[in-house]
């Protein structure tokens, strides 16, 4: 994936993860809360990956 698509996917996963966590809290489902937390973390990693790719590309472009 490119840096932009990583950032977009990351943001989407973070939002979905937060929604799952909220739904899990509302229903008392620890499983859903855990799934949401995992998806949120996955999104944060994807976003960080996208930012790192952008930084590397920016460095290479300046050379």
Structure explained in plain terms:
By secondary structure, this protein is mainly α. The chain has one domain. The chain has helices at residues 3-27, 30-62. α1 (3-27) runs antiparallel to α2. The protein starts with a helix and ends with a helix.
Shape: rod-shaped
Helix tally? Answer: 2
Q: How far is the N terminus from the C terminus?
A: 23 Å
- Tally of domains: 1
SSE topology string:
HH
Helix content: over 70%
Q: What does the average pLDDT come to? A: 95
Summarize the biggest pleated sheet.
Answer: none
Beta-strand portion reads: under 5%
Which segments are poorly predicted (pLDDT under 50) over 5 or more consecutive residues? none
Helix/strand-derived class? mainly alpha
Strand count: 0
Family: Belongs to the UPF0337 (CsbD) family.
Biased composition (Basic and acidic residues): 32-43
Biased composition (Low complexity): 10-26
Domain CsbD-like: 6-57
